[in-house]
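FAQ: What does the model actually see?

It sees only this:
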Amino acid sequence: MKKMTRESRSLRIVPTPFGTVAVLWSVHAGRPLISRIILSAPGMPAEEAARTLFPASPASSCAEIEAEAERIGAFLSGDAITFSLEMVRMDLCTAFQQRVLRAEHAIPRGKASTYGLIAKHLGMPKSARAVGTALATNPFPLIIPCHRAIRSDGTLGGYQGGLAMKRALLEMEGIAFSDSRGVEPAYFHYAC
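And it is asked to produce this:
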């Protein structure tokens, strides 16, 4: 991933049923855009992580960021929200990561895909690990729903907010789990 620019970043904390979410944003090309979203993880609230990583970011908001913060809160409360990529700084990601993130963003609510299927969809069938790495460093979780990417055996893999949050989000979106195998293949997107 490209390094963050030296633009002045602001911080908006969003309270959710899954803990706080930190939205880091700045004015870029004349409009407010999100440069990073940090989820609360087990033992690390998002606000604390954001203050550690970006200590000079003042708390502030604006109408556009406030609207996106409300959408994030609604999404984590179970509402069927589809996010646009218009509010995120995709230019902060490498070209490969942008391709992966766009493919992940295209996975609809109620579906999941595997790292391998995403790699195959991108025309790079041997790049499942690279896809996994690109998603593990997704700077925009929730807006780009990386919780919808799982391992080829249907098990969850990792997630910034923890595996309990990942499973809860998938279940909230209507994805069923088998006790022995994880996500059922019937829910796979990009399957042949």
